[in-house]
Amino acid sequence: MNVIGLFGGKAMVSIDGGKQRMLSVGQTTPEGVRLISADSNSATFEIGGKRQTLSLGQRIYTEFKSSGKPTATLAADVRGHFFTMGSINGGSTRFMVDTGASMISMSSTEAKRLGVSYLGGERGYTSTANGVVPVYRVLLDSVKVGDIVLNQVEGTVIEGDTLGVTLLGMSFLKRLEMRREGETMTLVKQY
Fold this sequence. Notes:
The chain is mostly beta strands. The protein contains 2 helices and 16 strands.
């Protein structure tokens, strides 16, 4: 691991010669490196259960072990919500993790942009803050978040444009292990 940049509460690192990534205090990488503290002079990491303090440009050599399963690590925003970029059927979309949503849910505007043919889906109705609106139950070919790709995921498309973000609901999340540590959530593909 190489420390490339240091900031208050954040550190830019490269692990196993991989691409640079910014870690926030409390965040754990899929390799198991956790940032404990950081300022402009040094950063303290927990690596393999041991704490290591490194300054800018310092490297540490250790063997990083991952579970071998695809993962995604998300950081909470200031309100505690977890947002991430991902894709549906190959098209990029912004997700918000919502364990209260039964399925992945998106607006009909977003579905059209992503090329999701929802009008042939099973039609129903749902009550929203803007009243009762039509919804369509669909089967999404593929959903990707981080390194995780799931196929044949149930979703709903809500008629109109009242849903400003795609909800990453339980039809996706139930197939993952979810771990939350402070302001970081790690998703690990189970099957």
